[in-house]
């Protein structure tokens, strides 16, 4: 009814408060209790990671402070490991390692996936698309852990070999998702309309089509973050991951000897930290997905 | 009129699409001219090549699978077929613009109206963001959007269908094109809004002195707002002439059929609405002769053998061997 009035040009009713899709998603998210709780847990982890990164906390993770295999005390909250290092400080400092890997891999892989996915999606049916699909299929054929080992050897024990290996594997999932979405979007009239108004192809892809996939990208990024952290733990456990630093994976590897001897501190501290982070982040990711889903807004 | 140089002249345009089942000629040897400031309607049923014709003029035939295999499109004395992408971009939006059928999907849902309009204006004109914005607001005002200063910062989903189509028109006209291609611009709108949008277009056309090609199957809209009509069937032009002549004295049996199938509500006793019997032939298996022959009630042996040429006097041409019901 109000539309009809506006069409007459007689009324100038314009909603005072402007609601974009993002503000709506944001409002929906802050109403979601599970989402907010998981976000605050993730925020706490992030704070710890930043403080460790700035050198303000847990700098003594590498020092031999006390006797080995002590139980929890007032000074060493989670006790000490076999070498007499403070498990609490080690577990805290590992958060920094995890975030470092998670963030770099998630950001780089998502951006790569978005760029490749949108380009191949737009050019679907041409040789450009064929080429990239072929490349992705080839990369998919290589077993992931073999790839990491290969990168580690090729980069001569570079501490970032693991990061690079993950980045080069993880972008493909995002690329496929974005490609599918872009194929759907490019057949919509606004793409044709943009082209018919003289917008160059690269602008159509990156300014008109890619922003339409931002809800996918954001969720993909959170999922990749978790995947990267879990992979880092597994790789470190296997000895392919973090070098010259500490990670939950290395702590679990240490603990594998200790647990059989009846010392559980190292194991519980590292796997507990990992478990809470992954759980919280997965719940956050779910809530984010719900909030951003345009069909539910 | 014929002494004037045409703004657009399409000559012998042939577009083919490669499909899995074979090559399809979506349009076959199409010829027509558009004079400056004139409104030409292209009418015909779905799949007759209306939209492909307009996309060819824009240089936006999806390729692959589509390809312009023959013919030329001359716009302001310049050949458009084979123009490179960079050159063509300067024509699109700037000299030739297009508006689309679905206002709901023709605007990008995640970008504000301002972003989309300013982008287009700045692509074709060397102006600052502020100037482009001012121009965009002016255009929104011109197409009858109330409080354009507030509306410009909204997202498409906050506007009604009619307003979105107006925004589309504003965007298409923001660089002052000489030719506007309107691909069924009112089909998706309510009847009341249809009339408003059409009136707006006619008014703007006079104001800006631009030519319009109106692609439609709505003959009512054609009668109201166009000067000349091009009737297409199966990728070919079968009749072309001034709107009065076409409506008063249609020569091709298909055009006659189309006009007869418009319901007349004023008659007290509403007779059964006549339809054109049969279906459009498959573009993959076209008949040898006239493409309408199988559905025509005035068909004779020659129609099945030879394709009739578009002929007749300069202003009213028809592609039929027996345009008046008698064998020529």
Secondary structure: elements and pairs:
The complex is a heterodimer of chains A (297) and B (328).
Chain A (H helix, E strand, L loop, with lengths): L1 H7 L12 H11 L1 H21 L33 H36 L4 H15 L2 H11 L6 H26 L2 H8 L4 H9 L4 H25 L9 H13 L4 H28 L5
Helix pairs in contact in A: 2-12, 3-4, 3-12, 4-5, 4-7, 4-10, 4-12, 6-7, 7-10, 8-9, 10-11, 10-12, 11-12
Chain B lengths: L7 E12 L2 E13 L4 E5 L6 H9 L7 E10 L2 E2 L5 H7 L4 E4 L13 H12 L4 H14 L5 H4 L9 H13 L5 E5 L7 H18 L2 E6 L2 H7 L2 E6 L2 E7 H6 L4 H8 L50 E2 L4 E2 L10
Parallel strand pairs in B: 3-8, 3-9, 6-7, 7-8
Antiparallel strand pairs in B: 1-2, 1-4, 4-5, 9-10, 10-12, 11-12
Describe this structure in words.
The complex is a heterodimer of chains A (about 300) and B (about 325). Chain A has helices spanning about 1-10, 20-30, 35-55, 85-120, 125-140, 145-155, 160-185, 190-195, 200-210, 215-240, 250-260, 265-290. Mean pLDDT of chain A is about 85; it is low at about 1-10. Chain A has about 300 residues and is mainly alpha-helical. The longest helix of chain A has about 35 residues, at about 85-120. Chain A is built from twelve helices and no strands. Chain B is α/β, with parallel strands linked by helices. Chain B has a domain at about 10-40 and about 50-85 and about 230-320: P-loop containing nucleotide triphosphate hydrolases (Rossmann fold, 3-Layer(aba) Sandwich), CATH 3.40.50. Helices cover about 30% and strands about 25% of the residues of chain B. Chain B has ten helices and twelve strands. In chain B, a hairpin with a 2-residue loop joins β1 and β2 (about 20-35). The longest helix of chain B has 18 residues, at about 190-210. The mean pLDDT of chain B is about 80. At the A-B interface, α1, α8 and α9 of A face α2, β6, α3, α6 and α7 of B. Chain B: It is a peripheral membrane protein. Chain B: This is ABC-type dipeptide transporter. Chain B: Its EC number is 7.4.2.9.
